[in-house]
Backbone:
């Protein structure tokens, strides 16, 4: 670990008003439009949103995989005291993969098909530390064992196409953790996997997080996953954070109409009888022609005049968690209890 | 807003009725060949290995399972997109197992399919009007000049703007494309629609819209659905009865509420416990069973009960030596297990630390 | 891997059999003119024709002739191994001339291949990395030019500019390496470049396309996420995956050229297989034509086999299927 390791519980990552806009032929795509949050060591953050919410783009930018060559990026991303957006490319490269690493969605295509699995993991080690090839290979095997691949020496010599989806994802996790990072970002890590394998992988992430003292950010669209594995949850919509809170707050006293819409539109395994779902009407917004005011207002059942013109900012009412909505706190509580809770 | 749509569960409501679709002993094997000059068959991918299934008019049967369980292959065999290796297929009493393509044609008016990927299952070079209108033209169920009117009516029905008749698929969103697929399936007013993962590729909020649409259409047109999905919550929501498959065989069949409250097959139990529930408190108290390893390959399935190597309740030698048959466990509730679960809390987690894969 | 190679080898054998068979049929069975008459010279007498026929075994049944033909090629004849036979025109064994000419063509082909590979891959990579920028446009412009310009025109223009006008290079013709290395090189320089230009253009486009496709792959993103240097990402990860189509094409291209780069040899007056076979067609020297055809077919088949093996070495998915 580096010399600037913050103590346990201290803030590892602080994002301030991050905006990521892509200029395209059709116009400016405002993929991320002003988000601010923190992640502390040991914390598991769940970032929930549908496609187009900006959840993946924000973390790809934090990792430096989206750069100012592709997009207009403003704001600050402060990781262990340094603003990553202002770092020269080379220095960012030293952080990426070593202090901060990422696991992606589709394990079938995320590993290079022509190199052996062990070699790809060892490559990560060799890129950041001055060790011999043999030592790097040994560490790769050790990580494979840690992520639960039986006979890891054999596994390391195999090619990705010889692994199943679950095993490939484990190998990806091994690769992400081999250098003992402080922050692990998992972008839809289980969406492409079967539900029993999903459970294994999430369980693995839980255990390894403790073992490696890492903070984890899980990006997903699955509210069940964040309910079971995350301490803090952000709900994102149209490039902004709609609501941010602890797990229980989000589900038992949620304060944003979009979150209510999500909760009401998912079929639940533990629901009694099959009641009609309450989908959110309309379609996700264009990120080029974002609706004025609150981006969610065209689809919101509780829209007021102010919502059409004034952009709501994340506000924290006393005793509540931050949410970006013009409804008064009392209103939010009332609506939630009446309309949402009575459903489950 | 909260109208229940399923009839209250009664002891086997189908007794005495004739099924709309009956599948008996259906197998579908794909040959695995090896060889330098002459390809020799060295084995089979036993994608579907003896499935019996009955679907009654007006109901929704959910078919659920993980990768390699054979549910998609079964759907393809039922709709004759694959030829069955063995077994019998009957639609409305008619045995169509060996029908040629021509003979199948009139049957396709009774049985339609909606596919998973709304981006891949629509011909990008055809307009929406053409895609939905083709069934009329192929089966000559409407005179030419009337087709457009019918198509536009259908479009409205599924929630599309009829003025978009001449647009191309790429001009629509994923959810809208799926609606096009639904409209196309409805064009011939079929009796049975096989839905192969119709909402898996869609965002959560759109998913809900499509599920509601399917429910509404079922009520209005008295449709019967075979609903295939891997998402157990979705399947629970839409189905009257649920079939759980594992490695080509049926593990359990039960009415929806019964299956989720009182699963009998250990695989069903583990499957249910693995589904993440959007409720932090319940998540804490849930009995979490983490299975070992990955699903084995259907080329070389385990002997006896296919689930036995991973089963928390397996007992050798019986589970390895004897293939369990589907037996009645209650009204309309069948499971293929020698040691079925005795209650919802019967499963114990395996005590190994991190499940070993590979 | 062994099974993979074995299967490919069998195909090579099959191809060789088919090539020899069709060659034989085309030259001995189909022609309306009796080959014996062609060989016998001008206004041959009946007796001469009969003699010729007997000497060449042309009076034997079809299958025997074919068998002899094959035997001659693979086991050698009275003039040495491999058995190339006797020229109708020169009345002397073909073998020595054939081998000499093959040697010249091989030098041309291999030299050109090195140039086009290096040039093509380099330009392709540059284009892909600088996509949309001026380097890309210039490169693709060059590629368009190289693909469109006929080889003979290019060759003649090159000779005109560099030999006639600028006197930088000596002209046409072949100088053996053993005789004068610098002249050998200078005489081959233009032919190599002209030959390579066409192929380099194709390969540049292919490498560019293949590399751009790789850039969009998920595993490239993973490589970057690991913190690898951009150099490693492009070359070790991107290029490796992009090379497989190059390898496949290279096998066929080089194999085809080894059978005679007719136009280039003609323009630059190189005594290779290409000019040899053209002359033989004009003079009706059938044994030579047949030999070249069989050789060319074999060259392509074998080079394809080598390309396939290289492909399997690059891409393990092909090996283990």
Residues:
């Amino acid at each position: 670990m580096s010399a600037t390791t913050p103590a346990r519980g201290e803030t590892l990552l602080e994002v301030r008003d991050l905006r990521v806009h892509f200029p395209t032929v059709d116009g400016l795509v405002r993929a991320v439009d002003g988000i601010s949050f923190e992640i502390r060591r040991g914390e598991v953050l769940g970032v929930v949103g549908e496609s187009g919410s900006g959840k993946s783009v924000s973390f790809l930018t934090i990792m430096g995989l989206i750069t100012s060559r592709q997009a207009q990026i403003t704001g600050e991303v402060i990781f262990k005291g340094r603003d990553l957006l202002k770092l020269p490319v080379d220095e960012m490269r030293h952080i990426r993969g070593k202090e901060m690493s990422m696991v992606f969605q589709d394990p079938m295509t995320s590993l290079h098909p022509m190199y052996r699995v062990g070699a790809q993991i060892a490559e990560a080690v060799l890129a950041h530390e001055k060790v011999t090839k043999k030592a790097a290979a040994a560490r790769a095997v050790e990580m494979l064992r840690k992520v639960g691949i039986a006979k890891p020496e054999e596994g390391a010599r195999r090619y990705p196409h010889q692994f199943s989806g679950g095993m490939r994802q484990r190998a990806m996790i091994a690769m992400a953790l081999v250098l003992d990072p402080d922050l692990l970002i998992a972008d839809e890590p289980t969406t492409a996997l079967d539900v029993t394998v999903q459970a294994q992988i999430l369980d693995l992430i839980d255990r390894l997080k403790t073992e490696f003292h890492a903070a984890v950010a899980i990006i997903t669209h699955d509210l069940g996953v964040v309910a079971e594995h995350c301490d803090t949850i952000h709900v994102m919509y149209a490039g902004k954070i709609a609501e941010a809170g602890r797990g229980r707050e989000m589900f038992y006293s949620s304060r944003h109409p979009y979150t209510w819409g999500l909760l009401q539109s998912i079929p639940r395994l533990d629901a009694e009888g099959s009641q009609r779902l309450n989908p959110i009407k309309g379609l996700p917004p264009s990120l080029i022609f974002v609706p004025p005011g609150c981006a969610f207002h065209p689809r919101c059942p509780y829209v007021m005049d102010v919502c059409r013109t004034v952009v709501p900012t994340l506000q924290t009412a006393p005793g509540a968690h931050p949410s970006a909505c013009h409804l008064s706190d009392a209103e939010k509580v009332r609506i939630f209890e009446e309309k949402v809770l009575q459903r489950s | 807003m909260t109208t229940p749509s399923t009839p209250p569960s009664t002891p086997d409501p189908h007794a005495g009725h004739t099924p709309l679709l009956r599948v008996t002993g259906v197998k579908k094997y794909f040959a695995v060949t090896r060889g330098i000059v002459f390809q020799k068959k060295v084995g089979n991918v036993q994608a579907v290995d003896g499935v019996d299934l009955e679907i009654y008019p007006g109901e929704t049967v959910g078919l659920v399972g993980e990768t390699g369980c054979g549910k998609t292959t079964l759907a393809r065999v039922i709709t004759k997109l694959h030829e069955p290796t063995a077994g019998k297929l009957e639609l409305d009493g008619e045995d169509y197992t060996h029908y040629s393509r021509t003979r199948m044609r009139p049957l396709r008016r009774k049985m339609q399919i909606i596919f998973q990927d709304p981006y891949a299952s629509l011909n990008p070079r055809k307009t929406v009007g053409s895609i939905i209108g083709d069934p009329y033209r192929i089966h000559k169920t409407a005179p030419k000049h009337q087709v457009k009117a019918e198509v536009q009516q259908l479009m409205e029905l599924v929630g599309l703007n009829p003025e978009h008749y001449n647009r191309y698929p790429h001009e629509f969103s994923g959810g809208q494309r799926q609606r096009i697929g639904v409209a196309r399936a409805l064009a011939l007013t079929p009796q049975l629609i096989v839905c192969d993962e119709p909402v898996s590729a869609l965002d959560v909020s759109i998913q809900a819209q499509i599920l509601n649409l399917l429910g509404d259409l079922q009520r209005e047109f008295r449709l019967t659905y075979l609903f295939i999905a891997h998402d157990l919550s979705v399947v629970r929501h839409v189905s009257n009865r649920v079939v759980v498959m594992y490695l080509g065989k049926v593990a359990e069949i039960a009415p929806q509420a019964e299956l989720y409250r009182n699963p009998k097959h250990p695989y069903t139990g583990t499957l249910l416990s693995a589904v993440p529930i959007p409720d932090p408190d319940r998540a804490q108290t849930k009995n979490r069973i983490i299975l070992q390893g990955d699903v084995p390959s259907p080329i070389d399935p385990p002997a006896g009960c296919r689930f036995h190597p991973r089963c928390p309740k397996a007992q050798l030698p019986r589970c390895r030596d004897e293939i369990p048959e589907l037996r009645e466990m209650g009204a309309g509730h069948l499971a293929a297990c020698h040691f079925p679960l005795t209650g919802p809390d019967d499963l114990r987690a395996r005590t190994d630390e991190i499940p070993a894969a590979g | 891997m062994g099974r993979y190679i074995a299967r490919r080898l069998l195909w090579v054998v099959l191809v060789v059999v088919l090539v020899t068979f069709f060659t034989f049929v085309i030259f001995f069975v189909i022609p309306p003119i009796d080959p014996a008459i062609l060989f016998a010279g001008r206004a041959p007498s009946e007796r001469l024709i009969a003699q010729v026929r007997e000497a060449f075994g042309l009076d034997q049944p079809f299958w025997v002739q074919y068998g002899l033909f094959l035997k001659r090629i693979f086991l050698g004849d009275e003039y040495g191994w491999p058995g190339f036979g006797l020229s109708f025109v020169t009345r002397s064994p073909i073998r020595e001339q054939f081998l000499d000419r093959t040697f010249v063509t091989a030098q041309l082909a291999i030299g050109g291949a090195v140039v086009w590979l290096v040039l093509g891959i380099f330009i392709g990579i540059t284009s892909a990395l600088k996509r949309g920028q001026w380097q890309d446009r210039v490169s693709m412009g060059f590629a368009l030019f190289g693909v469109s310009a006929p080889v003979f025109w290019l060759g003649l223009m090159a000779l005109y500019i560099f030999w006639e006008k600028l006197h930088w290079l000596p002209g046409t013709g072949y100088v053996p390496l053993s005789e004068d290395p610098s002249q050998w090189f200078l005489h081959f320089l233009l032919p190599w470049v002209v030959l390579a230009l066409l192929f380099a253009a194709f390969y540049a486009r292919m490498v560019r396309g293949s590399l751009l496709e790789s850039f969009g792959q998920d595993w490239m993103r993973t490589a970057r996420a690991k913190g690898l240097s951009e150099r490693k990402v492009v070359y070790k990860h991107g290029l490796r995956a992009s090379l497989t189509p190059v390898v496949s094409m290279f096998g066929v291209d080089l194999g085809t050229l080894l059978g005679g780069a007719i136009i280039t040899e003609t323009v630059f007056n190189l005594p290779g297989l290409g000019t040899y076979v053209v002359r033989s067609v004009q003079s009706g020297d059938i044994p030579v034509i047949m030999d070249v055809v069989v050789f060319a077919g074999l060259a392509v088949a074998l080079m394809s086999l080598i390309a396939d093996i290289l492909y399997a070495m690059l891409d393990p998915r092909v090996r283990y299927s």
Remarks:
- The mean pLDDT of chain C is 84.
- The longest helix of chain C spans residues 95-129.
